[in-house]
Amino acid sequence: MPFELTKELIEQIIALIRQQDDKAILALLEDEHHADIAEVLEDLDLEQSTYIIKLLDSDKTSDILIELDEDIREKILQNLSAKEIAEELDELDTDDAADMIAELPEERQEHVISEIENEEHKADIKELLAYDEDSAGGLMAKELVKVNENWTVLKCVREMRAQAENVTRVHSIYVVDDHNVLKGRLSLKDLLVTPTKSPISEVYIPKVDSVNVHEDAEEVAKIMQKYDLEAIPVVDDKERLLGRITIDDIVDVIKEEAEKDYQLAAGITQEVEADDSIFELSKARLPWLILGLIGGLGSVLIMEGFEGALSKYKELFFYTPLIAAMAGNVGVQSSAIIVQGLANDNVKGSLLNRLVKEVGLSLISGVVLGILVILAGFLMSMEIRFSVTVAISMMCVIIVAALVGTFVPIILDKRGIDPAIATGPFITTSNDIFGIFLFFYIAKAMLGF
Amino acid sequence: MPFELTKELIEQIIALIRQQDDKAILALLEDEHHADIAEVLEDLDLEQSTYIIKLLDSDKTSDILIELDEDIREKILQNLSAKEIAEELDELDTDDAADMIAELPEERQEHVISEIENEEHKADIKELLAYDEDSAGGLMAKELVKVNENWTVLKCVREMRAQAENVTRVHSIYVVDDHNVLKGRLSLKDLLVTPTKSPISEVYIPKVDSVNVHEDAEEVAKIMQKYDLEAIPVVDDKERLLGRITIDDIVDVIKEEAEKDYQLAAGITQEVEADDSIFELSKARLPWLILGLIGGLGSVLIMEGFEGALSKYKELFFYTPLIAAMAGNVGVQSSAIIVQGLANDNVKGSLLNRLVKEVGLSLISGVVLGILVILAGFLMSMEIRFSVTVAISMMCVIIVAALVGTFVPIILDKRGIDPAIATGPFITTSNDIFGIFLFFYIAKAMLGF
Asked: What pTM did the predictor assign?
């Protein structure tokens, strides 16, 4: 029966905490998965969730803590002593332990690390903390199963059993030489079907993908996806085996990347969630709104410049939100397609090809939308000369907007800047200003005011 | 040495194809990964890539075909006979084979299936084709390793070796009873560390997550992410084991879902790529632009209704693009946060709480932006009464836009409609119209025209 988070369950747990009925709480939560208990904790208040964390075994609570939302974890850790945190860390894989320490205030980190009992674990965690969190080193865990190329299958199985105890999932067994240089890999399946006396050097697969410890996390994600890998070994510049990255960490990288791009396109910086505080949400949203405001004030100035047209062609001014909307929408569409294309490496062909294509595309849209504007003008009894002017200048605006939307991300990408920041408000705002200026400029030339 | 796709390599291959030097082509591509060869093929023309596919072994080409971009695969398959396609299918796992058949024109599907030689493989593929592609059944493969609970570990290892030959990666060994009902699982690790005479029933883990074959694909992705699973068994309504889903398929589901949401937010329907044809791109983009156009024409009508203000307060009309931009940006921000929150199940608390929060949030933004408008008005020597009017009506517009952006997705979600369609042009356009109307309405009340 799958776990279901019900109001009744939460109320029952709160009541048990109030009665300090530890036995009943343990009985209730004992068989639940740590990810489910994390969900329960997110519905309790800080005092109650700390109570549960202190009550349960640290082999379970360490996993629960990792599953929790960062804000809640941070608060609970504030309620734990350095020694208690170190006990949790002892139960975690090195990569999760390093991530958890990295979230602590700096002055606490040293103290917590010094409390970790297992010296090897401590050294591994310290090593991981030194890597950039967006690099392969920041993603990898030190836990892995490795064997020496000079061993036999039998010795390998024996050694492996010991090592495997510390490794949650054995994807591949890595084969190294005496200097810890990665030579190849063995699968568990291979080990099961090979005579036990064969030397490893005869049975291992010498072709093994690996990434350098300083490789960018997104690049690692691309490699693992491309080659359908579930784990990849991480090596240093001398090809020595340092750790391994598993697919579940990559799933997180992919999700975070997608969410970041989505937020940037919507005009939100920083990773915010619906449940963050008003202050944090404002901090993420306001800068983009101010950018939009500046753009809007720019439009005001442009229209003041064309004020002379008011007496004869006041309707031109009524069309400005339409022009701005078209310029914005077309720009966002073009930039979104390019940003995704760049992320998936499928923006091919020369810049000239892309230019011709975007112009063709916006000509089609422009003609269709222009005809609709002329038809609507007819229904609203506009002068035909006026409607045609609006339609033609709108078409020019659409072409320019499409080009801006396409080439700004491409140029940013070439300069090593994340093209996703060019989507959303940035493109919309600059296209608003460009568009309104172009609209009046062309209308002036055609109508002669 | 990692593979690198260079111009020289492509030119070399094209030259070899022209010379029909099959030996040299085979020598060149033999050791490359199928994902790399797929990249090479995407840079060749149809005739050249078909030539390579016909030249290489079907155990390699089947994997290459699966890696190819759908458009290119479709064209190459058109150049192959039903028998040739069936040979490719014979080499593929059932899930990939079913996906490939599903892409063929319907009249060809039957013919190709009838050419598949392996009867069991044929039946499995037919079964998979019957499931909805967005369900667990549409994602699963029939290939898995299963053992009977009544066997010993020794018999299990022996049977497993035979079964494992057809399974690319053995994640878990599933344990079933005599009626094929899923009872539990064993890991390869367990098998390696258990005495061979133990009966399976004593060593297997009875707790195993599974999903129903009709479960929604996105739901499966959530479960596998939540519990950090690398594979999950799929069962029918009677808990009988039908197949299994692996994490690499889930990575694809997550990526596609993220890309779809991103495109919807940018006003693009259907999954299009930068390299699709102008016609396909137009089809995906035009409907949203027409929606925007209709909204823009609505604004024209609203402004005509307030035309009386032109003589005294012509500047009001200069501010309309600014108002529209603010309404649009705020709306998109709010809806993006809610859409992501709904996707991650972290929109908690009552609707009233959310209402209070959004109003608070937009009040802060509104006040900051309002002060900036008044300052800008001062610099542009606007009348202070006018600037304050613009600032206050803009604040009201921002509040309404935030509420629309928040509650439209929530309402859609409650009605079972994908809330992502409410982001982007839909919110922008409706907020443009609402915003401009509200702006003039409030300005009229305050300035009295």
From this structure: 0.82
